[in-house]
Design a protein that fits this description.
Radius of gyration: 20 Å
Distance between the termini: 25 Å
Number of helices: 10
Order of helices and strands: HEEEHEHEEEHHHEHEHHEHEEE
Bound molecules: adenosine-5'-diphosphate, magnesium ion
Strand content: 15-25%
Oligomer: single chain
Length: 339
């Protein structure tokens, strides 16, 4: 069977079936933003790994090494934030092809460390190898969380409201602008709005403080970070929680920069928000009785819909018509991302 027939998530389910065994210390194993392991009576260890591959996750014709280091840290810190935790230590493993200079690797670690420092997280190990083709980056972050503050993708209940932090679609639109630049099509790729979208793609800022505040307030029932795209990441929450959801297209937060540049993009704005991915915003669910508690945190969040009984994911358009929401975010083997 070809892996493309199974898809990334089908393959992970097979790996889980073959190799995963829950032990008394495994609170959360495969299937969430990070594993949660009970290593001492008072603390839970969070562990997450993400890879960034040249020509898959980044293109060296428009990514500088400082940004690459920054982003490699950000995607992992975002997973710790989605569990409600605090990052502590990290390990990096690199596969480096011949043409990469020492100066570029140093730039990578300048960017990497700049973000780690703001989260008081330190590099404690890793591995360095030669790669025959393409740069390979693997980052592991270890964090911790108190048991009462641990948030997972499971826990959303019918009636809960669905919220997101920040705005969606900026990163995917920024990527499209960068790709057009490489092709020599500058178009609307100049100006402060384009810069903003590009920055969101190259140097995302993980919602660490927000994730922590949401978790500590106890207002959320489930949480995930948006790495694959709103539609796919909402599907992950629904699958793990055994629920459906209904979201309203006209409530999805779109940044003024994306609105302004929308005319020059190949797809409607909603497409970038639903399927684009790499926004690294937080998607979470809140029971109606705890919404006041969320509001008291004064975090920029938007209510975009509600959790429903059943399994269906529905998108309500601005006329009130409901359509099935396809999980169209990134799948490494089905290649559904905007190219
Ligand atoms: P995220 O997008 O939050 O990084 P992923 O979609 O990459 O999460 O992974 C989903 C879940 O599957 C996570 O729990 C991750 O640890 C697990 N996972 C992914 N690939 C593997 C693998 N090869 N072996 C074991 N677990 C895996
Ligand atoms: Mg995640």
């Amino acid at each position: 069977m070809r892996i493309s027939d199974l898809g990334e998530f089908g393959l992970i389910r097979n790996i889980q079936r073959l190799s995963f065994r829950k032990t008394s210390t495994t609170l959360i194993g495969i299937g969430d933003d990070a594993a949660a392991l009970k290593v001492s009576p008072s603390k839970i260890l969070l562990a997450t790994t993400d890879m960034l591959l040249e020509e898959v996750h980044f293109d060296l014709s428009f990514t500088d090494f400082y940004s690459l280091g920054w982003k490699s840290a950000a995607v992992n810190l975002s997973d710790i934030a989605a569990m409600g935790g605090v990052p502590c230590h990290c390990l990096t493993a690199l596969g480096i092809p011949n043409h990469i200079t020492v100066e570029r690797i140093e730039d990578f670690y300048r960017g990497f460390t700049a973000l780690l420092k703001t989260h008081r997280t330190t590099l404690v190990g890793g591995d360095t190898c030669h790669s025959r083709k393409g740069m390979v980056i693997s980052v592991t972050v270890l964090g911790e969380v108190e048991k009462k503050n641990l948030l997972s993708r499971a826990g959303a209940k019918p009636g809960d409201r669905v919220f997101v932090t920040g705005t969606l679609g900026d990163s995917a639109a920024g990527l499209e602008i960068l790709k057009n630049r490489v092709k020599g099509q500058e178009g609307r790729g100049k100006g402060t709005e384009a810069k903003r979208l590009i920055a969101k793609h190259l140097r995302p800022v993980p919602r660490a403080a927000e994730g922590r505040a949401i978790a500590r307030s106890g207002c959320a029932s489930a949480m995930i970070d948006i790495s694959d795209g709103l539609s796919s990441d909402l599907a992950h929450i629904c699958e793990q929680s055994g629920v459906g959801a209904e979201i309203h297209s006209d409530r999805i937060p779109i940044s003024p920069a994306l609105m302004k540049l929308s005319g020059g993009l190949t797809m409607p704005v909603l497409h970038y928000a639903l399927s684009g991915g790499e926004d690294y915003e937080l998607l979470f669910t809140v029971p109606p009785g705890k919404i006041k508690r969320l509001q008291s945190l004064h975090i920029p969040v938007t209510e975009i819909g509600a959790v429903k009984r059943g399994k269906a994911l529905m998108l309500v358009d601005d006329t009130g018509r409901k359509n099935t929401l396809q999980a169209t975010g990134y799948d490494h083997f089905r290649r559904m991302k905007i190219t």
